[in-house]
Design a protein that fits this description.
Oligomer: single chain
Strand content: 15-25%
Structural class: alpha/beta
Radius of gyration: 21 Å
């Protein structure tokens, strides 16, 4: 077992971002049917940050000789692409994005059932009971603050740094707060569902409508809010802690506050059913769950690992110190369409 996993440690060099990289001719290693443990190719649709994808790909190739060709896509776009290609899969693997996005594809038969031997000791929430997807990292939602503007403009008014979701309702945040649109950003939908789970249906909608009064405007993507807060265009927002922390490490005056009863995502990975390099895809899945790969993920993305023997990102609280809301992932998926329709009709449509 140990020998197998040492072979399966890796990182890959990205060869191509061409749209045709997923063709059956390019997707099958030369002279092989479906790849091998000692080389070949793997075609990946990645919803990770590109630098994170590159780091994983390079290390994967060093360990296995398997080259990764990847295309970077947003989570929703990646899901749509896999679904559109179900009759003729052009890739082997989908990585990144919340597992909330994976359920519909699993039900449609887009994924191959695979139970990695490396998931046996993981918390059950990271393992799909049907083995169609695998959770391999966690992200938690945070409030982000531009410290310089906060100290100059809000602190003199007696405003304390926010500690809870409810603190964002302070009228002093009006027009200096931005957020992502839950109808277009998965992270913003998770934050919306978070309010429902902590406050109940009625309380959540009251909260969201009050929060909307402070929102200067909504961005399309979950990560789009980080830069304008980091650069001081706005003072506050809601964003993933790992993405925000990465920007903070670049020297911006960005403060992260992880409030009580925060929501979280489980980052997913899945083998695409009928892809040209299935055996290599299984090796990659096993590799993502190794201690070495988890440590690399933490170092390059600041996401929380799923293995208990890998430390949280330095500078962020340990996961057992984070107060997580009782987030019902099945319920969040089931209610999503109705919630987004209501958000559009009762909040977005009423903005002036």
């Amino acid at each position: 077992m140990k020998k197998f996993f040492s072979m399966a440690l890796a990182a890959l060099m990205c060869l191509s971002l061409l749209a045709g990289c997923g063709s059956s001719e390019e997707g099958t290693p030369s002279g092989e049917e479906g790849g091998s443990e000692t080389g070949g190719k793997l075609i990946v649709y990645s919803a990770l940050n590109e630098d994170n994808t590159i780091a994983l790909a390079e290390q994967f190739k060093k360990d296995t000789g398997i080259e990764i060709e990847y295309i970077s896509l947003g989570g929703g776009d990646a899901v749509a692409r896999v679904q559109a290609e179900m009759d003729n899969p052009q890739a082997d693997f989908l990585v990144g994005g919340s597992v909330d996005l994976y359920g519909s594809l699993a039900e449609a038969g887009a994924f191959l059932e695979y139970d990695s031997p490396n998931n046996d000791d993981l918390d059950e929430r990271f393992n799909d009971p049907n083995h169609m997807w695998q959770g391999w990292y966690m992200g938690v939602l945070s409030i982000i603050i531009n410290e310089e503007r906060f100290e100059e403009e809000l602190a003199p008014k007696g405003v304390a740094l926010p500690e809870t979701w409810d603190d964002l309702l302070d009228p002093n945040y009006k027009d200096v707060f931005v957020w992502s649109n839950p109808t277009t950003a998965g992270g913003a939908y998770i934050a919306t569902a978070c309010q429902i789970f902590r406050l109940g249906e009625d309380g959540a909608w009251e909260y969201l409508k009050e929060l909307d009064k402070n929102v200067h405007h909504y961005y399309q993507g979950a990560g789009d809010v980080i830069s304008p807060v980091a650069t001081g265009e706005f003072i506050a927002s809601i964003a993933w802690a790992h993405d925000s922390f990465k920007t903070q490490q670049e020297g911006y005056p960005l403060k992260l506050i992880i409030p009580k009863q925060t929501a979280y995502e489980i980052g997913g990975a899945a083998i695409i059913n009928g892809g040209p390099n299935t055996e290599n895809a299984k090796i990659f899945m096993d590799w993502l769950l190794t201690k070495e790969a988890q440590e690399l993920s933490v170092a390059t993305s600041y996401r929380y690992p799923v293995r208990t023997d890998v430390a949280a990102p330095e500078g962020l609280p340990a996961l057992d110190e984070v107060d997580l809301v009782d987030y019902d992932r099945d319920e969040a998926t089931a209610m999503k369409e109705a919630v987004l329709e209501k958000f559009e009709s009762e909040i977005m449509s009423n903005r002036t």
